[in-house]
Write a structure and sequence with these properties.
Blueprint: E1 10-13, E2 18-21, E3 29-34, H1 45-63, E4 67-74, H2 90-98, H3 102-119, E5 127-130, H4 135-147, E6 151-154, E7 157-160, E8 197-201, E9 221-222, H5 226-236, E10 240-246, H6 250-265, E11 270-276, E12 279-281, H7 288-292, H8 296-301, H9 306-314, E13 322-324, H10 326-349, H11 364-379, H12 384-395, H13 402-416, H14 426-452, H15 456-468
Parallel strand pairs: 3-4, 3-10, 4-5, 10-11, 12-13
Antiparallel strand pairs: 1-2, 6-7, 7-8, 8-9
Helix pairs in contact: 2-3, 4-5, 5-6, 9-10, 10-13, 11-12, 12-13, 14-15
The chain binds zinc ion (ZN).
Length: 478
């Protein structure tokens, strides 16, 4: 097979605040680390939005010609409610509420996370690593930091000394004076500076912690941040090409990961920082209580296809926030169903399975124009809304033969992951056509009533809806 160099990939880098060309340490290979879920409850769809984009990023890198190693951690050791070193242990709290052991809680919600991810067509990372199975690596890293003078033991805990890492505030553009204790955060007398963070707890505020391990500093458990540095180091080595996470990790978690890793390794650690912005609930349309509990299961309970949520996510750019409401969700679901229907029609036009497809036989210029637009959309800072627009442009391009359209769309879907390769099952199709037949019948009845009442505006509105459903609207005499 001829080996072509990978395509140039441009991505925004939080580290430099610029869109920059990806420049991996080893040519042709990308070492990618993503902060994974904390498994003490179901993942909110807002968190899953980040994993959808990471999945598209990994697929895009593969299409661009890179061999990718995608590592993701699972935080299954209890960590505190706050990013800082305070609050109650989330896993222990959940365990108490559900009357299960923290270990059961962690395994249960880990498998739930991957079940939900699979429903969103998020591919499992190549390496998934649990914090509880890497305590030795964390202890070793903390020891190195202590040996090198970047960490100190105090009152049974080990703290990272941020004064020893002058670049500490740079990544997030922090002002150290803002990190002083506030009314909300209690002063910790064991820390040299209040912004120092815990690497190992032997003396936590919660003496009944179930998850504990022996360490050189006593029996205890790791601070949260150290797990990512230790596991990324184990599986990817001392250089990470792309480090991903939610934008909420920038100020504390990723700032601390950088401090630990760069002080341990003695050099710059991450090439590109890829951060996804928030999903925001449309507070005008959704109550806090209904919004805060939103999971993939709450979508399916409303009859929404999880992949329609993936579609909605892709209509936004990863660096912008997405305003969520069920209205927005239902509108995305209609667009997504329309896309699937067109793909199904193409499949039917090509004789079912589309096995006789040959991109090479088509007009190369038209094919190239679409493929180029699609590649440019994604290679230039993962602009998924533009990539979706290219899919629609192909579906609506009447100069292309059905077999060609289908081949192009399925090729694109290898990156977008909208499940267009799977035939809509017969039962789905039946249900949908029955549902549509019902809708058409209801609209026809309403329109007849409007005409009878000589409400022409309403009749026209209903006519437009009927035409959108593909119904034949002809009015007989009278
Ligand atoms: Zn992390």
């Amino acid at each position: 097979m001829p080996t072509q160099p990978p395509a140039t990939v441009l991505l925004y880098n939080t580290g430099t605040r610029r869109v920059e060309a990806l420049n991996p340490t080893e040519s042709g290979r990308v070492r990618l680390y993503a902060c994974g879920p904390t498994v003490y409850k179901h993942a909110h769809i807002g968190n899953l939005r980040t994993y959808v984009f990471e999945d598209v990023l990994v697929r895009m890198l593969g299409r661009a010609g890179y061999a990718v190693t995608h590592v993701m951690n699972v935080t299954d050791v209890g960590h505190l409610q706050s990013d800082a070193d305070e609050g109650e242990d989330k896993m222990a709290l959940s365990a108490r509420q559900e009357q299960r052991s923290p270990w059961d809680i962690a395994r249960h919600y880990e498998s739930e996370f991957f079940r939900h991810a699979a429903l969103l067509n998020i591919r499992r990372p190549h390496i998934v690593c649990r914090a509880t199975e890497h305590i030795d690596e964390m202890v070793a890293m903390v020891r190195t930091l202590q040996d090198k003078g970047f960490a100190y033991e105090s009152g049974g805990n080990v703290y990272f000394d941020i004064a020893k890492f002058p670049a500490y505030a740079d990544f997030a553009g922090l002002r150290l004076e803002d990190l002083a204790p506030t009314e909300r955060v209690e002063e910790d007398a064991r820390k040299r500076q209040q912004a120092d963070f815990v690497l190992w707890f032997s003396q936590s505020k919660f003496p009944n912690q179930v998850m504990q391990w022996d360490s050189p500093w006593g029996r205890g458990f790791p601070g949260w941040h150290i797990e990512c540095s230790a596991m990324a180091g184990k599986y990817l080595g001392e250089h990470v090409d792309i480090h991903c996470g939610g934008v909420d990790h920038v100020r504390v978690h990723h700032t601390n990961e950088i401090a630990q890793s760069e002080c341990c390794f003695g050099h710059r650690w991450v090439g590109h920082w890829f951060h996804c912005d928030f999903l925001e609930l449309d507070r005008g349309k959704m109550s806090k209580s209904s919004g805060d509990m939103l999971t993939v299961d709450s979508l399916t309970a409303r009859g929404l296809d999880p992949l329609a949520f993936r579609y909605l996510v892709l209509t936004s750019h990863y660096r912008g926030s997405l305003r969520f409401s069920f209205d927005a969700m239902e509108s995305a679901a209609r667009s997504y169903a329309g896309m699937r229907r067109r793909v199904d029609e193409l499949r039917a036009a090509c004789g079912g399975d589309g096995s006789a497809l040959h991109l090479a036989q088509a007009d190369p210029q038209r094919v190239d124009a679409h493929a180029q637009a699609f590649n440019e959309a994604l290679l230039h800072d993962l602009r998924t809304p533009m990539a979706l627009a290219v899919v629609w442009a192909v579906l609506k391009d009447d100069s292309l033969a059905p077999a060609l359209k289908l081949a192009l769309v399925l090729d694109f879907d290898g990156v977008l992951g909208l499940g267009l390769d799977a035939c809509t099952t017969a039962s789905d199709a039946d249900t949908r056509s029955e549902g549509e037949a019902d809708e058409v019948a209801a609209l026809q009845t309403a329109r007849a009533a409007a005409r009878a009442a000589r409400d022409w505006a309403e009749a026209d509105r209903l006519r437009a809806l009927l035409l959108a459903l593909g119904a034949d609207v002809r009015d007989g005499k009278g």
